[in-house]
Design goal:
Elements (H helix, E strand, L loop, with lengths): L5 E10 L2 E11 L4 E5 L6 H8 L7 E6 L2 E3 L4 H6 L2 E4 L11 H7 L12 H15 L14 H13 L5 E5 L7 H16 L3 E5 L3 H7 L2 E6 L2 E7 L5 H9 L18 E9 L4 E8 L3 E5 L6 H8 L7 E6 L2 E2 L5 H6 L2 E4 L3 H5 L6 H6 L7 E2 L2 E2 L1 H14 L16 H13 L5 E5 L7 H16 L3 E5 L3 H7 L2 E6 L2 E7 L5 H8 L4 H7 L1
Parallel strand pairs: 3-8, 3-9, 6-7, 7-8, 13-20, 13-21, 16-19, 19-20
Antiparallel strand pairs: 1-2, 1-4, 4-5, 9-10, 11-12, 11-14, 14-15, 17-18, 21-22
Bound molecules: adenosine-5'-diphosphate and magnesium ion.
Magnesium ion (MG) binds next to helix 1.
Length: about 500
Amino acid sequence: MDREYLTLEHIEKSFGGNRALKDVSFSVKKGTVHVLAGENGAGKSTVLKILCGNYHADSGEIYLEGNKIVAANPRQAQDLGIAMVYQELTLVSELTVEENLFLSIEPKNKFGLIDRKEVRKRIFALMDEYDIHINPKAIAGRLSVAEQQMAEILKVLLKNPQIIILDEPTSSLQSEEVVKLFNIVRNLVKKEKTIIFISHRMEEVFEIGDYVTVFKDGTFVGTRKISEIDVDELIKMMVGRPLTQIYPKKSEMVEDTVLLEVKNLKSEKLNDVSFQLHKGEILGIAGLQGHGQTELLDAISGVHKLTQGTIKVNGKEAKIKNAKQALDNGIALVPCDRKNEGLMLILPIQQNLALCSLDKRSKAGFINLKEEQKFAEETRKSLKIKLHNLNDPVSSLSGGNQQKIVLGKELGTDPKIMLFNDPTRGIDVEAKSDFYNIMRKQATEGIGVVLCSSDMMEIIGMSDRVLVMYEGRITGELQKDELSEELIMKKSMGIVEEVAESDK
Ligand code: ADP
Ligand code: MG
């Protein structure tokens, strides 16, 4: 068999009874960016940890330039030219960047010491070569996540690897930091290095990848050339069905009962907003970022100050000046910034879930822990939250599962109206699909849902009706059968169609 640069054949790996990799084979070409994609838990990290000597495969072979290789540990992988930047950063936070880098280097001279001057020179040369700007004297723990990652990359580059593995390097980066990282990746490829890059963000796969290999449930689905595949096909490979089937069926008919009515809402960011939300309806709110959507949801949930306007719940005027009063009126908000607004990351999952509905499970000021656990367990099941233990901190969960905790916490209050602000941003397709099903199920059961989203496909796929916002106003209302990306886009930019028509 004509083996390529790097080939993995028939790799099997189990953890206890869990088969994490089932007969996985794929190849990587030299000097390319090879993306590994697939849902959380698909086995991407595991296969690469085997490649770099962190885990041992139960069976299977790895070939590098046609020769069978065995890396019993990361050190041996390194000697073979394979290095990995892990998903979890590994710097010693009390030490400086430079000290961290020294630590990772084997002593060279006969006294078992590192030639610091020499290493320093190499560090500067590398920073220069790859356009990496961090202060080597900075304490690692004080650096931003992006800077720590750069230090990790430097650490790996110091060992002059030929194959560099990056495990979800962008998951905690801002967009401008991603640009920088991609520049480094491109520079590495120019130097004939081979990059294996784990990501499940579509835009990224297409921007940086030359090839993509998809994993699903521990099996190899396929490898494609990026230039020969489109988003739809890739998603289909990842989740086993096309995007259009990710959205649940819409309501046949929405009831007339008005659950929520807002009238003439005005604030710093809102300019006379009025609308009604019906029982069982999913009302989408579209618009470009920063046109008042977040403020609108925040105003209805009592955290954005209105200067004017009324909010009616079930036909009665409601006084909603804070989050507690919103909850008392049966209004729950799933915010977009789960890390800052939605969760106490270091607290256990169970406690986070119970956070909003403490009164329900307390008696005479004491929390009924049994009840709390029961609720957490039920929520885990109904929302399909993937976790090891309810007592683990929320920070141990993936983004999608963290967001499910936010949702579960809000559902615990038995809301009548649910407001979602960009709920699926940055979470994987499988979790998205779960979210959509839950949202629709809630609506079917009679809850009114307002869904604000920056994802146009999501708005079109989920909404029974859509309002478009522009500069704090509602500039359009579209019914289910009128929803199109073009129309929403136009209204989002304040373009009134009549003008375009009469121009002719
Ligand atoms: P991915 O990187 O694609 O999200 P992983 O390779 O991390 O997926 O995980 C694949 C499967 O193996 C999951 O079911 C995960 O729970 C399991 N797994 C990974 N590492 C370990 C480990 N050290 N111990 C037990 N199970 C593990
Ligand atoms: Mg992983």
